[in-house]
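Table S4 entry, Choloylglycine hydrolase.
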Amino acid sequence: MSKYIRQATSADLPAMMAIIEQGKHALAADQIPQWQDGYPLAADIQADIDARIAWVLIVDDQIAGTAALLTTPDPNYAIIYDGSWAPTENHRYASIHRIAIANGYHGQHLTDFYFSNLITMSYQLGFRQLRIDTHLLNKRMQHIITKAGFEYRGIVYMNHDNNDQRNAYQLLLS
């Protein structure tokens, strides 16, 4: 099995959106309200592609996953509640968002591989910390995040919406 990540192109958008839709259905089946209000839309994913922050996971020449690796500060992380970000010498960080694996690829530990590659990309880009968040009810993603080495740091709210609370995590690289 060949597997790697590469930067996404506009030609990848239909496959990426199919994976996002599968993720939305899985979250809905688990009664997790994350991604249930339309977001992320095709326009959001296209904006990631245009900003050159969209990455796809390729397995045997097929797109098996999608993610965004933000390299600018996430406004949702400016204020953290019931905790704090670990202090660092350099306040720059990358963050992983909109990550999903296609149906049919689950159970192959591809998310571990994907995270490892995104962390490596972050390091190569000069970042020594990464941040990520997920919904309080998304136990599957919380397990994946902590398995990848991230530590729980507190609570953040999406777009200052008190009804959209997320668990926030941070990974420090040396």
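The chain has four helices and seven strands.
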